[in-house]
Amino acid sequence: MEGTTTNDKRVWKRSFLTLWFGCFITALGYSMTMPFISLYIDTLGSFSTWQLNIYSGVAFSITYFSQAIVSPFWGSLADQKGRKLMCLRASGVMACTIFLIGTAQSVWIVILLRFLQGAFSGYINNATALMAGETPHERSGQVMGNLMTANVTGTLLGPLFGGLIAGTLGYRITFFITGFLMATVFVLTYIYAKEHFVAIPAKKMKPMKKIFAELDNKGLIVTMFLTTLLVQSSLMSISPIISLFVRQLMHGQGNISLISGVVAAMPGFGTLLVASRIGRLMDKTKPERVLLFGLLVTAIVFVPMFFVTSPLQLGVLRFALGLSSAAMLPAVQTILTVDVPSEAFGRIFSYNQSFQATGGVVGPLIGSLVSSVFDYQGVFLVTAGLVLLNFLIVLKFVPFKLHR
């Protein structure tokens, strides 16, 4: 694989540390601003509750929507120009769009900038693809797990920093600081991230159709794409209604916002606790086994959420969800790293990102629809069904991997 011919291990390790920091700041910057999008939009005009909900929903989902559409194009370009360039493109545009959101005077400007942010996004995805090419195979699982840790840690700390900044300095300052942080990521990536990449001319680059035709494991790759979509959908299905469900459990009494935030963050704490260990486990055993185990345990954990009667019970179960879900997306990425030719890394990982972004749209829609037709608890049973279906699909299409 790319990068394994160098004798200087410090090169890929320095690249890894740089990209870990970049993934951390990207996730931090995203989560710093996302909890306040609806509140920020409310300051840009006089809106009814219905209008505010619609505008907030559009501003939230349009980033995932544009990301899902455009990612394959960037993946093709990554295989021609390199993944480091794609990291620079993503961090640079994110720095600009987030900073400009802080200057917006209209909700439509916010939505437009959010659309552009999604269309030019992909730092974490390309950092993962870059490290997949630079990391020795025997360290792939650990590196993928640690990159997931960077993502989760940033997502966890973002709301805390964002809340502190917004509460003391205002919403707009939060966007300005986030833009500055992403500009820092751009500079550090440019200076310190190294990629041993041999450009593939567009005329010589194999089309994805031909690459897929040459793969011996087409079913496995497609299954991993579908798994990414279903995992992301299941993890985000509760997102739109978690604060409402917590309010119901608390009977409208107490500090609902604080308790909702803690409950929402619990899976992140669980994932952070075990992500690195699971990465090392995948280097010792097969990632397919780890993925199957994670899917099965996750499906089981969702079921008792249907019966919770207090925020404490919900929080404990969501912490357990973080422990089990920590195995899933890193396992998918490790499987793709091992089973995909290096010349197609950029495109394969970008397709995978498209499926993940689609899950970011589908999951909240499922949660909102199910909770509207049935009740909040119904979301957990439907989600458990989705994860169990995912388990059965993986079991069907990759059983030969389990005994290899």
Automatic annotation (TrEMBL):
<dbReference type="InterPro" id="IPR036259">
    <property type="entry name" value="MFS_trans_sf"/>
</dbReference>
<keyword id="KW-0812">Transmembrane</keyword>
<dbReference type="GO" id="GO:0022857">
    <property type="term" value="F:transmembrane transporter activity"/>
</dbReference>
<feature type="domain" description="Major facilitator superfamily (MFS) profile">
    <location>
        <begin position="15"/>
        <end position="402"/>
    </location>
</feature>
<dbReference type="InterPro" id="IPR011701">
    <property type="entry name" value="MFS"/>
</dbReference>
<feature type="transmembrane region" description="Helical">
    <location>
        <begin position="53"/>
        <end position="74"/>
    </location>
</feature>
<keyword id="KW-0472">Membrane</keyword>
<keyword id="KW-0813">Transport</keyword>
<keyword id="KW-1133">Transmembrane helix</keyword>
<feature type="transmembrane region" description="Helical">
    <location>
        <begin position="258"/>
        <end position="278"/>
    </location>
</feature>
<dbReference type="InterPro" id="IPR020846">
    <property type="entry name" value="MFS_dom"/>
</dbReference>
<feature type="transmembrane region" description="Helical">
    <location>
        <begin position="16"/>
        <end position="41"/>
    </location>
</feature>
<dbReference type="InterPro" id="IPR001958">
    <property type="entry name" value="Tet-R_TetA/multi-R_MdtG-like"/>
</dbReference>
<keyword id="KW-1003">Cell membrane</keyword>
<protein>
    <submittedName>
        <fullName>Multidrug resistance efflux pump</fullName>
    </submittedName>
</protein>
<dbReference type="GO" id="GO:0005886">
    <property type="term" value="C:plasma membrane"/>
</dbReference>
<feature type="transmembrane region" description="Helical">
    <location>
        <begin position="169"/>
        <end position="193"/>
    </location>
</feature>
<feature type="transmembrane region" description="Helical">
    <location>
        <begin position="86"/>
        <end position="111"/>
    </location>
</feature>
<dbReference type="Pfam" id="PF07690">
    <property type="entry name" value="MFS_1"/>
</dbReference>
<feature type="transmembrane region" description="Helical">
    <location>
        <begin position="219"/>
        <end position="246"/>
    </location>
</feature>
<feature type="transmembrane region" description="Helical">
    <location>
        <begin position="290"/>
        <end position="309"/>
    </location>
</feature>
<feature type="transmembrane region" description="Helical">
    <location>
        <begin position="380"/>
        <end position="398"/>
    </location>
</feature>
